[in-house]
Specification:
By secondary structure, the chain is mostly beta strands. 0% of the residues lie in helices and 43% in strands. It is built from no helices and nine strands.
Length: 104
C-alpha cells in the first residue's frame, strides 16, 4: 500500500466528519428495534450511519428509547443502553457486529 494511505504519525484513525457513537448488541427482527451500547452522545434528528458487514445505511434518527422502552431525546453517552428503530436489516440477533456513526 502506498505510504499516503498509512497513518504512522498519530497511530490512530482520524475521521473529522464522523464520530463513533454506539455498538450494536442485540437486534429484535420481530419488532424491528436495534439495541445499542452507547459510547458517545447522539440525539433525535442526528444524521447517522449504521455500518454493518453487509453494507451501510445512512438515516436521520426519528425515534430513540431506553432499554426499558422509555422515549428519549438523546443517548447521553457511555454506560447507557438504548434502542433505535431499524426494520428489515439483515442482522443477527446479537447485532451482527454493527457500529453506529454520527455525522458531525
Amino acid at each position: 500500500m502506498p505510504s499516503e494511505y498509512q497513518n504512522y504519525e498519530k497511530g490512530v484513525s482520524d475521521n473529522s466528519n464522523q464520530q463513533f457513537v454506539a455498538e450494536a448488541v442485540a437486534y429484535d427482527r420481530a419488532s424491528g428495534w436495534l439495541t445499542l451500547d452507547v459510547k458517545n452522545r447522539f440525539e433525535l434528528q442526528d444524521q447517522l450511519e449504521l455500518i454493518t458487514p453487509r453494507g451501510n445505511q445512512v438515516f436521520q434518527l426519528s425515534a430513540l428509547e431506553s432499554a426499558g422502552g422509555k422515549s428519549l431525546q438523546a443517548a447521553p453517552g457511555s454506560g447507557h443502553m438504548v434502542r433505535i428503530p431499524a426494520p428489515d436489516l439483515p442482522l443477527a440477533e446479537d447485532g451482527g457486529y454493527a457500529l453506529l456513526m454520527r455525522y458531525m
